[in-house]
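For the sake of transparency, this paper describes our internal protein records without simplification. The record that follows is passed on verbatim for readers who wish to inspect the format:
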Amino acid sequence: MHFQVTELTEQVAHTARDFSDQYIRPHVMLWDEQQVFPIGIFKELGKLGMMGVLVPEKYGGAGLGYFEYNVIIQEIAKVCGSIGLSVAAHNSLCTNHILSFGTEQQKQAWLPKLTNAEWIGAWGLTEPNTGSDAGNMKTTARREGNDWILEGTKSWITHGISSDLAVVICRTGEPRTKNNSTAFVVERGRPGFTAGKKENKLGMRASETAEMIFDGCRIPDSNRLGEVGEGFHQAMKILDGGRISIAALSVGIAKGAYEAALQYSQQRYQFDQPIANFQGISFKLADMVTEIMAADLLVWQSCDLKNRGEKVTKQGAMAKYFASEVAVKTANDAVQIFGGYGYTKDFPVEKYYRDAKLCTIGEGTSEIQKLVISREVLHG
């Protein structure tokens, strides 16, 4: 690894931390309980350049690298995993797909509106019956002259209702054949593109998750990203970077849970002393901080590889797998340290506990990460 945290990275982290404390923290539980997707917050983040972190300045982005992106996601997630998740999905999935595979004309048309959060982005791969089995997707795109007709339903889509634009992967060939899918950009308002059911989730409740339905939705060929048949390969490359996002999100949630538990253990007295003095508690804290640091280093390594333009498939999967499992374990131990209070909504750790679990599922389950890692190890 060849990375050093620069003054720029520290300044970006400080800005994200201050914004989160001032504008997100006071509303966290209200948004969570009422499942409010606070679009206004993302507009403000857009003004700070945090909705186009990796996009070059010529397209309206901040022109920063993965180190800065990492600290932005972590600092937001320490306060609210939901907001961190939505910032990650907008940046690394939708916006990054257009940046990575769009033509110059497409980039000029869509990226400026996404980077300042005038438009909120979504990314559609998952379907009701095809999660990891993407080669068997049911959503299709049929060529008709110079247009494409989209039919089908995408599920578990972040910003499936509120997005202004979605990158959608559709099957354009036979099921389970090679090169059978293609990526398209679909703007909200096109006839046949509607929102479906909003999911009532365990955690990440302020990050909107819903279906996107395509019923004879007609789009021009100019909305196609890359060549016909490249969709799945594009999606896998996007997910390589997306896993870094979820890893950073996981570390942020873990740090938030750990810091809350550490503070509580020093303030909570039993038997005339802080409970942090008891070995049963202090050893939990030792495990938490050690595992968080290990996860954090895996994320930084992945960011370093990304910044240098190197392959990140194995390292990204390792970071995502390990960090997400650490987030769940840390949040679980934090609830245990809080005892009965940890099981109430008067204290923050129950929300970290609920939010953390999504990190082991979204953008590829822990089991899928093991599959990716083992394939890389065995076949390179």
Notes: The mean pLDDT is 96. The longest strand covers residues 147-158. Residues 231-267 form the longest helix (37 residues). The chain is about 50% helix and 15% strand.
